[in-house]
Amino acid sequence: MSGKTSKPAVRKNPRRSSAMTLETVRQLALALPGVEEGLSYRTPAWKLGKTLLARMHQDGEALVLKMDFLARDMLMQADPHTFFITDHYQNYPWVLVRLSSVRREQLRGLLDDAWRSAAPKRLLAARQGGA
After folding, report:
1. What is the pLDDT of residues 58-102, one digit of tens each?
2. What is the residue extent of each domain of the chain?
3. 74 and 83 in contact (C-beta within 8 Å)?
4. Does domain 18-130 bear CATH number 1.10.10.10?
């Protein structure tokens, strides 16, 4: 043994190591009361009752998330790398979220906002009472 200490492993792409995955999205979405997983356009999707809250985009890199137009526009202006739309979504209240760059807590909050916009009063009240 030469007495040299080994260097700690260096991550080549630290940003990628914290990227959200399908499993992370699943955990965050299913933690919301009443949310169930299904399929939409043959991709994993999360609904509250009959209301679609989010689904994986067919590219496998982004999440399609329900959001009002004003919030969507503000997010796209503030962080166009993470939040964007395609022509298809221009006239619909959805935003695409790049999983490689969104932070976990930010995604949790956005999913919660989508849930709150779709939740019936009884679920909102029950959650508030338990919080």
Report:
1. 999 999 999 999 999 999 999 999 999 999 999 999 999 999 999
2. 18-130
3. no
4. no
